[in-house]
Amino acid sequence: MRGVISVMPNRKLELHTTRSWDFTGLSKSKVSSSLQGDVIIGLIDTGAWPESESFSDKNMGSPPTKWKGTCQGDGNFTCNNKLIGARWYNSDKIFDEKDFKSPRDSIGHGSHTASTAAGREVPGTSYYGLANGTARGGVPFARIAIYKVCWLTGCSAADILAAFDDAIADGVDVISVSLGAGGPIEYFEDPIAIGSFHAMKKGILTSNSAGNSGPFPLTVSNYAPWSLTVAASTIDRKFVAKAVLGNGLIFDGIVINSFDLHGASFPLIWGGDAANFSAGSDQGISKYCFPESMNSLLVAGKIVFCEAFLDGSGIMLANGVGTIMTDYEIPTDVAFNFPLPVTVISREDGQKVLDYIKTSEYPIATIQYGETWDDSMAPSVVSFSSRGPSPISPDILKPDITAPGVDILAAWSPVSPPSGADLDTRSVNYNIISGTSMSCPHVSGAAAYIKAAHPDWSPAAIKSALMTTATILDPRKHEDREFAYGSGHINPDKALNPGLVYDACAADYINFLCKQGYNATTLSYITGDNSSSCSGVTPGRGWDLNYPSFSVPVEDGQKINAVFTRTVTNVGSANSTYSLIIYTRSSISITVEPASLSFSAVGEKKNFTVTVTGGPITQQQIESGAIMWTDDAQHVVRSPLVIFNYIPDLLSEDSVPEKKPTFKGANMFHKNRFIRRN
Asked: Of 20, 38, 45, 115, which is the active-site residue?
């Protein structure tokens, strides 16, 4: 990447933004603190708040000798033996007045992701009493290196590439990237795909967020096969706040309400009855409680029922006490926090609130302080998590895996409002937010956990270990099945001992790209050199890439006919035999040759072929199966297999298109709001 191979537009990307580690099964590390301390996680994000307790270096020795990085503190940022390096990039030289011209985090997102991956144990942590407990990362003794590329104005492609370049040279072991493009983009124009390819060549795994544009299909981002694409799912707790009306009716709302009204009731009005006519508002506008549409004389000191899911600033500006919100579509699987007392209820319950207001002479209500409930349905992939299939390479199943990404408590920048609302003047050191930005560092931490135990494993081997040992999710809760969760939910402890791994190297991915229609020129945009060639490779299906999952896209009306070649490497017992288990429905034939794999040494490789056949299918959304190898002991090496219909023009042609895709920027689940900056 030091030489100039190609020039691309300097696009803007944006962010995708503790019980969670216990929920993955990683309650107590099986890897010693000294081994963890040999691993360095690089985070390409918004920076970090170095004084956070999550980045304390208490009882930590010097960084490993492989570390070649620096601490670009610029007078207001200090590194230590935990947060060992920090750099910042702003090639556009555009700064918001709230930005720090240093690696210091003014947004909160980077502090949150870094502490989720590798934060120290901090007991007694909570968000105003909610989620009280010990905050920690997956590898509390691993080192952290910060690469600040994201600002309040976005994340520059040029800065992202520079950060990858530096992280590789600095000696990191895992790179965590919780940001991405807002629409399909070819690999050779994607700075994250390019940067992660260079990292892979140097033995560094990149963990990426899948995006927050779900539940719509074909929305997954960061789908390069050499990186690990992470969806977001729930954990076994959720936050609820009750609205209590004067007539005794009580409604539960999924929300993070940190405000305590101490049971006091306040007058309750409908937003439609408090229009600011002087500002051009009317009942049809004010019922939604938009900012500056409300009559402060009528709203002041009251709780307002609003028929739109907004950030509450309209009521704050009018001096209201709080708001009960409803909307036609409200999130029921993720909670938001707000700058004032709020609960968010269903449309049906909202009608009951409105009926009470209209039929009562003096309607009153209160909003109770938030409660923490058990969620027995977890894990489930959250609605906002972007779905597959891959819009560029449908022969590769994406996302790869899912991890906790809902209502995650982690470190925060105290200068960033916890609710994301500009009117929110509160300052917190820990915040609860949601997004694939939060699930990504869980997998980054899990990858570092494996790297600490197996320092010689390749990025593909670590990725395979995480995917083939993942906990299977219930397809009855997910109509889009593997397009939602990939191989399943991470299980870091199981991934330490997967038995077999599907390994791959740069040459394998180059062959894959050649089959996608790349040539020497477009290939060089990704590899960074002119030595790679597609000579002798015919464009075709990507089914011979040694990937830990199987994807069979079929055009409408065509028969199912796919042949995969795979190689597994023994990383378990030296003398072992693995037998085959196939899961599929009767109308689809899956044959595997051979049906048994015997090993006599660790590191030994065995090849097998998978043939999938069936009759013509039309309008088939997704059909799930699985191929499993088991040694009848502790190892079950499971790979999902999916079959689905697709229209090639809507996904990817066999050759790279001449027309450059439109780049819209990222979809973020950031500051607890959906923010789409297109």
From this structure: 45
For residues 294 and 285, what is the distance between their CA atoms, to the nearest angstrom?
Answer: 9
Q: Mean pLDDT throughout 243-262?
A: 97
561 sits in which H/E element? strand 559-570
Beta strands in 354-503 (DSSP E): 364-367, 371-374, 401-404, 408-411, 430-433, 500-501
- The helix/strand/coil state of 294 is strand
Residue 96 is among the residues annotated as catalytic for this protein? no
- pLDDT tens for 605-622 read 999 999 999 999 999 889
| DSSP notation for 6-70 | ------EEEE---HHHHHTT-SS-SS-HHHHTT-EEEEEES-B-TTSGGG--TT--PPPTT----
Prediction pTM value? 0.93
Q: Any idea what DSSP says for residue 473?
A: P
Catalytic residue from among 109, 442, 454, 635: 109
Helix ranges (DSSP H) in 310-394: 313-317, 347-359
Residue with tokens 């994340």: 155
CA distance 43 to 25: 24
- Cβ neighbours for 502, distance < 8 A, ≥ 6 positions apart: 460, 461, 464, 468, 546, 547, 548, 566, 567, 568, 569, 639
Catalytic residue among 221, 233, 293, 437: 437
pLDDT tens string 452-508: 999 999 999 999 999 999 999 999 899 999 999 999 999 999 999 999 999 999 999
Tell me, what's the pLDDT at 346? 95
Q: Tell me: the pLDDT tens digits for 572-631? A: 999 999 999 999 987 899 999 999 999 999 999 999 999 999 999 999 889 999 999 999
CA 115 to chain centre: 15
Instruction: Tokens for 391, please give them.
Output: 């819009």
Helix or strand or coil: residue 474?
A: coil
Whether 109 is a known active-site residue: answer yes
